[in-house]
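ugh finaly. both done.
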Amino acid sequence: MLSLLYQEGPSTEGIFRRSGSAKTCKELKEKLDSGAEVDLACESIFVTASLFKDFLRNIPGSILSSQLCDKWVSVMDQGNNEEKIKNIQRLIEQLPRANVVLLRYIFGVLHGIEMRSEENQMNAFNLAICIAPSLLWPPVSSTPDIESELTKKISSLVQFLTENCCRIFGEEITSLFGEI
C-alpha cells in the first residue's frame, strides 16, 4: 500500500482527501482481512489511500499511542522548533519498534506528496487534516468541544512532523522506498 502511495500519491490531486469507492473498499478490506491476495495496483489510488487510513484507524491505541496523547499534543506548545523536534524524538523512543518503522514509511510518503504539493494540492497542512485523525486519538472520548480542539492540535502536530520529517526521522527517510 505504502509503495503504491509513494509512487502515485505525489502526482494525484487530492490524495487522502478524496475517498475511494465505499463498496470497493469494503470488498477489498474483507479480502485483505481473510488473507486473500489483492492487487491494489489494479484499483484506484483513492481506494488504496482509504484502505490505508482504515488500517491506521484500526491499530489498537493508535500508531502514536493514545496513552501518550497528552504528551504529543503538548509538544506543539513547547519552545522553538529545535526543542519540539527533540521532544518528538523522545516520544518516538517510547513507541514500539514496529510503530516507529511504520511511522518512518508513512512520513516518507507524506514528505514525497508534500514535495509536489503544487501539482497535487496536498501541502503539509492539507495532508495533516486528512490523515491526523488516523494517527492519534485520545484514550477516552470527551465532549465535542474538547475533541474538536484536540483534533486541531493533533493536525498541527502531524503538519509539523511532515514538514520536519527529515530532521526527526533522518534524511534517509527520502530514500526508504529506493528507486521505484
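ok and the 2nd:
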Amino acid sequence: LSNNNPYASFGATLARDEEQNLWSTPHDVTHTEADDDRVLYNMIVVRNQLDKDSEEWQKLNYDIYTLRQTRKEVRSRWKHILEDLGFQKEADSLLSVTKLSIISDSQNMSKARDILLKLSEETNIFPTSWELSERYLFVVDRLIALDAADEFFQMASAVYPKRPGGDRADEGPRP
C-alpha cells in the first residue's frame, strides 16, 4: 500500500474508533471521560493484551459487552421517561453529555446530587450494582433548569419502582 492512499488505514481506523468508544456506538457524541469510562477503557486495554482464545479474554470480553449493554439500557430508561414527559424531540440532546458540558447553575449542584441519589435509592432506574455516573448529574441539572426534575422523579418512581427483595431494574418496567 502506498503512503499516498488516504484510504489505506480506513478499516484499522474504524476498528480503533470502535474500541475507543466507551459508551455504545462509534463516534458517540455524548462521550465524556468519567471514572466509569476509565474502568471500561482499562478493561479493553487488558483484554487486547490477552490471547483471543484464552479464558481470560473471553471473560473480559463478556464483562465489556455486559457493561456496555447496561449503559445502553440505563440510557434507554432515561430516554423513555423523558419522552413520556413530553421531551420527545429533546430527549437525545438532554442526555448528551460531552467534555464541554457544564452545570447550568452552581446552586443546582447539590439539588441535582440529591435528586440523583434519590433516584438511585428509591427507584430501579439504575441496576442494583450501578455506580452513579457523573453523566446523569448533568442530565438532572438540565431537568432542574427546565423545572422538570420532580416530574422526572415521580415518573421514574412509577415506571421503575423500588421493589422489596432487591429485584433488579433490568427486569423492565412494571405494567
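summary for the 2nd one i guess: The first helix runs from residue 10 to 20.
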